[in-house]
Amino acid sequence: xxxxxxxxxxxxxxxxxxxxxLRNFSQKTIKSYVRYIDECLRxxxxxxxxxxxxxxxxxxxxxxxxxxxxxxxxxxxxxALLFYFSKILRRSxxxxxxxxxxxxxxxxxxxxxxxxKIVNILENPKHRCIISLLYGxxxxxxxxxxxxxxxxxxxxxxxxxxxxxxxxxxxxILPVSLKETLINQNRLKKxxxxxxxxxxxxxxxxxxxxxIVAMAAEKAEIGKNVSPHTLRHSFATHLLENGTDIRxxxxxxxxxx
Length: 257
Description:
Radius of gyration: 22 Å
Order of helices and strands: HHHHHHHEEEHHHH
Strand content: under 5%
Low-confidence stretches: 1-8
Largest sheet: 3 strands, antiparallel
Number of helices: 11
Structural class: mainly alpha
Shape: elongated
Number of strands: 3
């Protein structure tokens, strides 16, 4: 690019994208922020962005609430609008707009017997490895699909979780029961290859993993709504039940329980 003739854009939406990329926001965050900002601007289409006020933003957030959006969705929309108006348009009028109050529900947790039943009922080796890793390491589904062979240390049986939530790296333990499977995969794949791939050679999607977990729980006749996050919570709960120090568990998670 010839910087001599470069002029930075003054378009607010272009500036928004630039600002979020410079702050190293994840693609998922950028996508959701742009979505809610665009939706709010369309909701308030009779006004320009610089004319939108507290009442307009309240009205948009209330519209989301009336459409049965979760507290998490409301707060993401709030954060997106706060970022847009304060950082991009340099406006400050959010002082009297409250954030949605989160509902504190206890997470679904499987018993050790239920977890074993789900793993043992699976005949597909890949599916068994997926569920064993979700439960045995406590990784998030988004972290699981990004595991590459180079992230696996077979000598020490540890997994390097790279760029997890908050773009932070951490290390977690690998189940000893998977050592033979992982050694076999290491023979077949290059260090840069993803551990879990689809039939076309690309990495499995989060949606595919969620379907695998749900179908396995249904096949095992587990009368609970089981997701990858259920296995993550079960991992932490069972470590606590075995007397593991909660500070160590938090270090494995690198997040609050």
